[in-house]
From TrEMBL, chains A, B:
Membrane topology: Multi-pass membrane protein
Gene3D superfamilies linked: CBS-domain (3.10.580.10), MgtE N-terminal domain-like (1.25.60.10), SLC41 divalent cation transporters, integral membrane domain (1.10.357.20)
Classification via Pfam families: CBS, MgtE, MgtE_N
Record carries keyword Protease: no
UniProt KW keywords: CBS domain, Cell membrane, Magnesium, Membrane, Metal-binding, Transmembrane, Transmembrane helix, Transport
Family, per entry: Belongs to the SLC41A transporter family.
Domain (CBS) ranges: 203-261
Annotated function: Acts as a magnesium transporter.
Transmembrane region(s): 360-381, 387-413, 425-451
Keyword Metal-binding: yes
Protein species of origin: Stieleria marina
Name of the protein this chain belongs to: Magnesium transporter MgtE
Amino acid sequence: MTDHPQPAEELRAAITSQDAEAADLCIEELASADSVRAVLRLSDNDQSQLMTMLPNDHAASLLEELPESEAANLVSHLTADQAADILNEVNSDEQADILSRLSAADAEAILREMEPEEADDARRLMQYAGDVAGGLMISEYLSYVESSCVEDVLSDLRNHAADYARYQVQYAYVTAQDGPLVGVLRLRDLLLSKPGTSVSDLMIRDPESVNLLTPLRDLEQFFDRHPYFGVPVTDANGTLVGVVRQNAVLEASEELASQTLLKLTGILGGEELRTMPVRLRSFRRLSWLSINIVLNIAAASVIAMYQETLEAVIALAVFLPIISDMSGCSGNQAVAVSMRELSLGLVKPSEAFRVLWKEASVGIINGVTLGLLLGVIAFLWKGQIALGIVVATALAANTIIAVCIGGCVPLLLSGLKQDPALASGPILTTITDMCGFLLVLSLATAMLQWLV
Amino acid sequence: MTDHPQPAEELRAAITSQDAEAADLCIEELASADSVRAVLRLSDNDQSQLMTMLPNDHAASLLEELPESEAANLVSHLTADQAADILNEVNSDEQADILSRLSAADAEAILREMEPEEADDARRLMQYAGDVAGGLMISEYLSYVESSCVEDVLSDLRNHAADYARYQVQYAYVTAQDGPLVGVLRLRDLLLSKPGTSVSDLMIRDPESVNLLTPLRDLEQFFDRHPYFGVPVTDANGTLVGVVRQNAVLEASEELASQTLLKLTGILGGEELRTMPVRLRSFRRLSWLSINIVLNIAAASVIAMYQETLEAVIALAVFLPIISDMSGCSGNQAVAVSMRELSLGLVKPSEAFRVLWKEASVGIINGVTLGLLLGVIAFLWKGQIALGIVVATALAANTIIAVCIGGCVPLLLSGLKQDPALASGPILTTITDMCGFLLVLSLATAMLQWLV
């Protein structure tokens, strides 16, 4: 890899001077992540120019490497004609992903300009969400009718070697004369057989397959159980319609895990890149922050109800944020463990009671430990046993409440078919804040005579 | 899949009655995730019994499916002899991962009982961390000297078909007579060639390779650029020593992403399963919580310094937790975006200034919006313009500070080769709490005459 101190600058210069060759060379020389970074830093206008300057297949590879949202944004700035030329060269699963992110009118305009066969494939895949087999599969696969023999397959492979290079072939599929999938051929078995052997003798019969609506979770589990490179997708009639590659499933899971992190902090749609416009980034973050401020005010209104107690024992104001924050942290640990166990498939939504029990035991140990620690500190600071008791009891009780709620909320949300990443945090924090404030201030009110 | 209401119960019954066949059948019938869940719910003792009851290769598959920490725990409860019999059947990369988690003495005892060849492979891989090529590679691959011809390769494949089934063969590697890697053969090219062709005419020369210490990040980038199923690993002399499969890299990245979530909430080592002992789970969570309580007390001590102001304007106590929590949320959004951009390779640690600038613009918009909102609420509640101004200014300023710090801290930590997942949260929250309290209370002190 050559040293490029400022690849984005170099690329911009090549675009400004309309030097197509230099731009192409610049992209080709960069590692994929570097070229993505450089392209994302260009203005929309420069990006469009770059795409029209590059050979279509190079532009297509670049498009496949960009995050989907950015690829769609880029395509939306091209003419339908230019976009179609490039999308013709993109793999069918990515075609569909990019086109589904455009407005229906834009997508239709591009589809009309694409090669009819490519457009049909893309239209078919666009009907399915990105997290089911129909949306993850590719249409580029090999299939032969069961009456073929090994020699037929080998000569087809030899004659179309160039076309098939793009297919990442590991298996060939065998169909009955009237359509349904009946078997799978492994390339290495072809290697070891006589040319006259019938593929129906060589194939693995009744192959595993999935249907168009099989969800990502089940596909993960499938590849977890079977060390295959791909699984055929069949429609309601058993006809082969596509292949889901293991890579596509692993990549989709990885993308999901990284989006979960963003959703947990309340970024709308789980997607933000700093190359997006400020307005959009601001809006996506604000939409959750403005709900959060309402929840915060609701929790803090508990404090307002106990103003008299607080005025009498102002030291409590120091402990309120400590207790609510510490319980929030303990609860979030339980949320994270539940989210991970859910994603690893180690726990089911129906097992909330088991989780409650498991969390309660950790909650009691940690709650009592932390409560005693903070209670002793409060006592040493003000020399009041009563203050120590209030603080210790409140933190211990609130920690137990927080871990129990934190452990169960993701399971309950997931059982209700809601996204646990999105709502677990706010629900937890609001409850622990309210409970924390209420515990400290009501205990203090009850023990007021020993506190003043 | 048959319906198993309580697979763990069924399994436990089979173990208690020493019915090896029933136990084996029970595991085989379950989907991988279900069998993992069932096994993890058994006591350590039942788990050990199960492993000795199953045929060694079935026990080995089960071991490969368990999370590594649990697999190691299970192996540690077997005799060295039993463990060795099972580990002989496990893939070399998993062997090394499991053995490295045991005490050196336990691992050595097992290695002595293993087949010498398997033990040598495992010893070699154990020298390397799990996130470099040396620790991710497998030793099961095909290699031929360059003087071989296609017929030699095909007859070797035919003669060892059973052994090679475990190799997930996609490529064969070609070495010079004296050792160094000189080429790669694709199976499909073997398919299309005459038996007498020399492999040196057919192979792809000067193949891409990585070395033993190539880090996971670079391997991800490699497979991002090259659509290969594996990459050969060579030592300092250019000799082929192993193969890193694309799957192993994707799985390691996925595992890392899910551990990041746990680390962010401060669970030591990024690993907790509810099947672990309560003592351990408690300790791992407490170690971070006890640091957090110190940070919290430090932040809250700011409140203690302004007790007089607070006593004079008790309404401020209601806004302190709102302002610190809201800024914390805004900052955590920026942390999550930076973590994701780092993991996607879209930003480098040296670009902290660019991130600062990008965050400042979002921070100003969101800070002013939220500040105005809360300021108006404060004014409406108490009818004091001064209270509204204090609250609005403090929240706006603290939001800007929080997003700038939140965006940059992960980059700075990553630049200092520290794990950004572990420390970003606590650093951010402590600073935003302190700044928030300080802003509200110092502003209020300055404007005290209009507030009382």
